[in-house]
From TrEMBL, chains A, B:
Keywords: FAD, Flavoprotein, Oxidoreductase. Residues 130-239 form the Acyl-CoA oxidase/dehydrogenase middle domain. Belongs to the acyl-CoA oxidase family. It comes from Pseudonocardia yunnanensis. Residues 275-440 form the Acyl-CoA oxidase C-alpha1 domain. It comes from the Bacteria. Its cofactor is FAD. This is Acyl-CoA dehydrogenase. The keyword Secreted does not apply. The keyword Flavoprotein applies. InterPro entries: ACOX_C_alpha1 (IPR055060), Acyl-CoA_Oxase/DH_mid-dom (IPR006091), Acyl-CoA_Oxase/DH_mid-dom_sf (IPR046373), Acyl-CoA_oxidase (IPR012258), Acyl-CoA_oxidase_C (IPR002655), AcylCo_DH-like_C (IPR036250), AcylCoA_DH/oxidase_NM_dom_sf (IPR009100).
């Protein structure tokens, strides 16, 4: 059954197919693979120039409030942003800093006084800015940033100050060269009281580029990748800004210094402010996805033409993608890339519906619930997608051997540029911990709502589960076929529930009188992360399954379901120790998972080229010498001489 | 029990402690962390200049025949070479190309006519050369290279020719800029008969640097890393060299074109020639080791000073290396780095004893057996050590967050430079396959030697094993403690034997009449690689255990044995699915392995700094802003305000 790559592409393109088509048409002809020999300064210059071209395309405007000339299409802008990952990741990140982080913060944390003054210049790329959150001493722990913004009612100004070296703003994009203004996150102090972290607009450079008085700007210099982005450091020595520079959507300070906020709890206020910035994380996951797709397209297309070693029977050299181990390196990774693509699509779609401008939105508890779910999913998928990108791009590089190490073949840049994705916009480990915490809270709430009889039943279930585990009963009861979608889902759901229940039991010990809370938490930390990972795996599984079900064409649906199966089985195979240890799989069925992965690799091998073509990567952005073999397919090399390898004397066995 | 890092360093330094001390004294004061902003040309120039400084140090001479002014210390030179991995990997690789590959080939494949003429100039760095083996179309499959060397008896010359684009020599170090001569591997043809791959000396550039007539030289350009090395491409258009340029230690062509060789089988001859080059693989494994050590030293020293998030009880910020998950990222990797260090030490030592000049050496079958074992071990350890380097350096980068992404903190260069180690000097997948093939041959021979009764017993054992597996008898019979060294070894040995026996059974099917040999092999390919990996794991385990036993000081031995245990348990934990599936571990004991890894992480945490100090990395080569926290330890940050995180309502559970 042959599947047309264009049909499959329509499925992958999904809700924002029109935006994707526009981006391909608009940018696909640009040369966005910069010369890898550019100096840092040259690359920064080029990236800034490309940023201005992007602004001229008015694509970034898509994400802003229509009242200010924006397009009001949050999902569209995030989709367009991710597509830059097929081209130049420095440009993607620079655009993300300018419009996603800096512009996004002004949009959602600010009010009309900021919007009126700055939004249009930000959209047009006339006012370039920074998102100055991270400090040298505090990256993940944003709540404990040390920069201060102290209100002076006499002058009606805030004084921004860096109290020590650790409070220096660090790794800030747009800071080293281009930024004129920064959204600075600082502890807001008024009347001697600290109200926690808030954001303020602080001019950092004059028009001519010289630093503003009291502002010290450093340069982070060369990085592993993303060298088109000018990351820098900012320190403030009692720098004064007007009271109005506080981005006051969630809290304000009156002229006399009185603090007010519609959100009473300082903790809830902090998390609400941060929550509005979820778009950054979702965008990073999207960029990781497109970069991974590009790497796989390169490695699979190369693997489908490269030949090495002769088939002993025919003497003909074998195409490397016909080797099982080569398939195992690339095809499960490809299947997972598909799975994450659909999970990401759902995430973007839900964010769009939640954040759209001017439309009727869910409000109150419902909206909070939805926002909370979105943030948790964004954290989880960002972590899983970026780790997947790092591992897959690495594998792709290795699958292309020496050719994959040459800059001309694009893989080195992809690897170097995406490397930081696992630790920026939230360190992955910290993000998964966040997911675990939310899951635990939800779990506790679920149990809390049970009446006494329900709790007793629940406790009995736990005991029964544990007995089933000991006796291998679970596996006996569930004689499913690992290739069945429903059985796969059962496994993933059971794992998630099992890990969560066990984690909850462990964490309860932290509440015993005299317990060392940190020790209890720390002892269970690896367990918590595994539970979070299991949760994300299940969500991704469901997203892929739903995507398959939406497909009309039986041929496309059939192929896609095989890809889905390969993804699911490779997840199960990777953690089969868990399933066997806890009685969810018999050893025999665990081995069957491995065999099924191998079999599906063989089944999907003939479709590998189609599966990567369907990503719709503009050919101009992927063209490189690695793909010469496609254009100039040599006749299969046949070697008339027999293989010189000494045959292994297998006849002697047994 | 406190252990002095210097005592531990003596253990790690091992047999070539004096060479290590010399290298530290001689090079430790040089600044060998080049500015990451260097252009390709600047970096190449610097590397060539450093290469000349190395030659002046006369350290490279160590590896050559004393009859020509060499030091005759093969083990010493490989040890010294690896130590460059603490500094600049471009220099390490450039030195490896010049003295290991080019000089090594002239030494071992050539005879006195080549030695007299070139060895001194090679040692002194006056004659820079290339090792031109790999072609664009054939990397791993060296036997099927297509460059030809056709003998012309009339002129008494060889004609070197590149018949097609795929036969171009590619990725050749020293080719793009510096090399004057190349050892070219080509199919030797005389009297119309091909005798397989042989090596010849071919001048590629005149003194003034212009290419020799008929030689086309290309430049591989920018690479992911190692940009101080000038990799290039060589094509030959009927280039003529004198008959004497054949490196004729293993085969010669007489004036009249008669071919002769002391080794009759062309296959054995080929593998004998290649076998002499085992030093390259061992050196790469060594370089991977030192680079890994440096990355771990950076990440662990940073992790031991960096603080993030407050302990809820004390309000004091927690040192990140105190988090279990941070320990899990770094400490098992550190333990495996120790394990590989000792396995590498054994390898270097055995190679030294086998290859030493002028000493009485084992000969005949024994020598062949030893050489074969050395090659197999070198292949296996090179694969495992370089994959370990890639994964560990990646983890270290991530463990340092944004700081780890900055070039000034050295980790990006380490990652980029070592990345190609997994695919050069033998692609790791191909190398493990080689190991598997040798293991299968040995296995077949072992079984072949059994008499009829022995074979019957063997078959019965296999059946019994299979029954034990089904009934879980193995696990019941072996009620060991996973923390016991003898139990750990039993597990690793059983796994190796089990996988090998099963692989042999599968491969036997290839011999059935009408079997598709490629299909049978390919279907078992993943199994073969796992078997090879299990073999290497067992060898590495044994090397570490033997190293622990050699230590006199009880304190050092005790600490080292805990590191050994962490390594062994992390190997067992990573493959616990296998052990449970095949009845070697009960599910309960598999979980115990995980618990034991966690416990050992805690036990070793206080020694982490000592364990990396003992590598003896010159401080000048590791000094970077990442380590500022050590020099300027801030008082632990205490946060007077209570944590703002909403507590998880755990009380509601159950």
């Amino acid at each position: 059954m042959t599947v047309d790559a264009r049909e499959l592409q329509r499925v992958l393109d999904g809700r924002w197919a029109d935006v994707r088509a526009d981006v391909r048409a608009q940018l696909g002809t640009l040369a966005l693979n910069p010369d890898p020999g550019l100096s840092t300064e040259e690359y920064r210059e080029l990236t800034t120039a490309n940023l201005r071209l992007l602004a001229e395309s008015r694509r970034p405007h898509l994400g802003f409030d229509p009242a200010y000339g924006g397009g009001g299409d949050v999902g569209g802008v995030v989709t367009a942003f991710a597509a830059l990952g097929y081209g130049d990741l420095s440009l993607l990140v620079k655009a993300g800093v300018q419009w996603g982080l800096f512009g996004g913060a002004v949009q959602v944390l600010g009010t009309s006084r900021h919007h009126d003054k700055h939004l249009r210049a930000i959209m047009d790329g006339e006012l370039l800015g920074c998102f100055a959150m991270t400090e040298t001493g505090h990256g993940s722990d944003v709540q404990h940033l040390r920069t201060t913004a102290t209100y002076d009612p006499a002058a009606q100004e805030f004084e921004i100050h860096t109290p020590d070296a650790g409070a220096r703003k660090d790794y800030i994009g747009n800071a080293a060269r281009d930024g004129r203004m920064a959204v600075v996150f600082a502890q807001l102090i008024t009347g001697g009281t600290s109200h926690g972290v808030h954001a303020l607009l602080v001019p950092i450079r004059a028009e001519d580029g010289t630093p503003m008085p009291g502002v010290t700007i450093g340069d982070c210099g060369r990085k592993a990748g993303l060298n088109g982005v000018d990351n820098g450091r900012l320190s403030f020595d009692h720098v004064r800004v007007p009271r109005e520079n506080l981005l006051n959507h969630f809290a304000d300070v009156a002229e006399d210094g009185t603090y007010s906020s519609p959100i009473e709890s300082s903790s809830r206020r902090f998390f609400t402010m941060l929550g509005t910035l979820v778009r950054g994380r979702i965008s990073v996951a999207g960029g990781a996805g497109t970069a991974t797709q590009k790497a796989l397209a390169l490695a699979i297309r190369y693997g489908a033409t490269r030949r090495q070693f002769a088939d002993p029977s025919t003497g003909e050299e074998v195409v490397v993608l016909d080797y099982l181990v080569h398939q195992r390196k690339l095809l499960p990774a490809l299947a997972t890339t598909y799975a994450l693509h659909f999970a990401q699509g759902d995430l973007v779609s839900d964010m769009h519906d939640l954040q759209s401008f001017g439309e009727e939105q869910a409000s109150g508890t419902d909206a909070e619930e939805l926002q909370r779910d979105l943030e948790t999913r964004a954290a989880g998928i960002k972590a899983v997608a970026t780790w997947h990108a790092t591992a897959t791009i690495q594998t792709c590089r290795e699958a292309c051997g020496g050719a994959g190490y040459l800059a001309e073949n694009l893989l080195p840049q992809l690897k170097a540029d995406t490397d930081v994705f696992t630790t920026f916009e939230g360190d992955n480990t910290v993000l998964l911990q966040l997911v675990a915490k939310t899951l635990l809270s939800d779990y506790a709430r679920r149990i809390g709502k049970l009446d006494l009889a329900g709790k007793a039943r629940f406790a009995a279930d736990l005991v029964a589960g544990s007995v089933a585990e000991r006796t291998g009963l679970r596996a006996v009861l569930r004689r499913g076929d690992v290739r069945d979608r429903s059985y796969q889902r059962w496994l993933l759901v059971e794992r998630e529930e099992h890990l969560l229940a066990a984690a909850a039991r462990r964490m309860r010990r932290a509440l015993s009188p005299g317990a060392d809370q940190f020790a209890v938490f720390n002892g269970a930390q690896d367990h918590l992360l595994v539970a979070a990972r299991a949760h994300v795996d299940r969500i991704v599984f469901d997203a892929f399954a739903a995507a398959v079900d939406r497909v009309d064409s039986p041929a496309v649906r059939g192929l896609l379901d095989q890809v889905r199966g390969l993804h699911a089985l490779s997840v199960i195979e990777a953690d089969r120790a868990f399933f066997v240890e806890h009685g969810y799989l018999t050893p025999g069925r665990a081995k069957a998972a491995t065999q099924a992965v191998n079999a599906l690799c063989g089944t999907l091998r003939p479709h590998a080229r189609t599966l990567v073509t369907a990503f719709g990567i503009p050919e101009a952005w992927i063209d490189c010498p690695l793909l010469d073999g496609e254009r100039n397919p040599e006749a299969p090399a046949t070697d008339p001489t027999p293989s010189h390898e000494e045959p292994t004397d297998l006849a002697a066995v047994g």
